[in-house]
Amino acid sequence: MTKKKIGILGASGYTGSDAVRLLARHPNADIAALTANTHAGKAMSEVFPHFFMLDLPKLVEWEKVDWTRLDAVFCGLPHGTTQEIIAAVLKANPGIKILDMSADFRLRDKDSYAQWYGHEHRALELQGEAVYGLTELYREKITAARLVACPGCYPTAVLLALVPLAKAKLIDVDDIIIDAKSGVTGAGRGLKQNTLFSEAGEGLSPYSIGSHRHSAEIEQEIGAAAGSAVTVNFTPHLIPMARGEFCTSYVRLDGATPDDLRAELERAYANEPFVHVTKKGVLPQTQNVRGSNYVQIGVVADRIKDRAIVLSTLDNLVKGSAGQAIQNMNLMFGLPETTGLEQIALFP
Question: Which of 16, 6, 5, 69 has its CA nearest to residue 39?
Fold first, then answer.
């Protein structure tokens, strides 16, 4: 297959740079355009010195890219700015494939989007077209899509752990408590006081309690699986490591046992290349998936009667963002889903 010409919007951010890292060794991808308006004119290695060995195009303003010569675009821009840019890209090249790693097209309901993101959606004609890009749940729709809204890192970890259980009606979806922790790259590369080393190091901080925007994605997808509206208790925390994510979900059993939950997850993911359900007594750990596109899920019986604890972990920049986007790109171009994504975790 001829290599696909790839562009990356927002290449100077963490998700954009990890897309570059993975695509640079993808056998069917040719990185042809990199945008970063604040760093326009610079070499990528000036912004990310670890790319010193790669021959990459210089960073440019997004307006200066000839979108007609590209086959696919990865978008690593912040929510809010993404909608109109993607609309402009698709107007210039209606046949291009879009892998959006922002939150702008994840929510199907326009009122829900306005509620959680503080303004009306600015590309409603595309919002209805976008396919939610959780690969293991929407593989067939992704294969035929033009615009894929790749999930957030927290929703990816939570939904892979809980959707099969909700769909099989093994848990009470009205009693879900999610304790989530993410490395500081989840907050982006911009200068923020709470992510300074002296502020984030040697500490653990909750944030956006009861109001984190990823709650909407989680509720949307668990609700779709359960066939009813769902509200979850979701609390994220900032943990002092660069990358990685761990979600602990506390669930009430609905006529099932913890072993039933594990068996259902094993059944659901038996043929999935990137989702691994641990054996009884084996606990997932962030270091088992760091730098990889893999997810680990485990189930433990709670000592409280009729309750279980479901554990899930992934790398927030890979399966939680750029890796999953590439997994979706592979599907959209008819490539083996695992192409360019079979790196083993970095350990230690």
Answer: 16
Range of the domain at 214: 154-316
Q: What is the CATH classification number for the domain harbouring 211?
A: 3.30.360.10
Strands 307-314 and 245-253 turn out to be antiparallel
Residue 299 and residue 175 in one domain: yes
Q: DSSP string of 236-291?
A: EEE-SSSS-EEEEEEEEESS--HHHHHHHHHHHTTT-SSEEEPPTTPPP-GGGTTT
pLDDT tens for 66-78 read 999 999 999 999 8
3 state DSSP class of 114 = helix
Does 297 share its domain with 175? yes
Pairing state of beta strands 72-75 and 131-132?
unpaired
Give tens-digit pLDDT for 9-58: 999 999 999 999 999 999 999 999 999 999 999 999 999 999 999 999 99
Other beta carbons less than 10 A from residue 14's beta carbon: 23
User: What pTM does this model have?
Assistant: 0.96
- Looking at the fold, whether 93 and 239 belong to one and the same domain comes out as no
Cβ neighbours for 326, distance < 8 A, ≥ 6 positions apart: 19, 22, 23, 26, 99, 293, 340, 341
pLDDT for res 73: 98
SS3 24: coil
Structural domain count, the chain: 2
Q: How many CA atoms lie within 13 A of 171 on its CB side?
A: 33
Higher pLDDT, 296 or 120: 296
Name every residue whose Cβ is closer than 8 Å to that of residue 87 and which is 6 or more positions away in sequence: 122, 123, 126
150 is catalytic: no
Which CATH number belongs to the domain containing residue 103 in this structure?
3.40.50.720
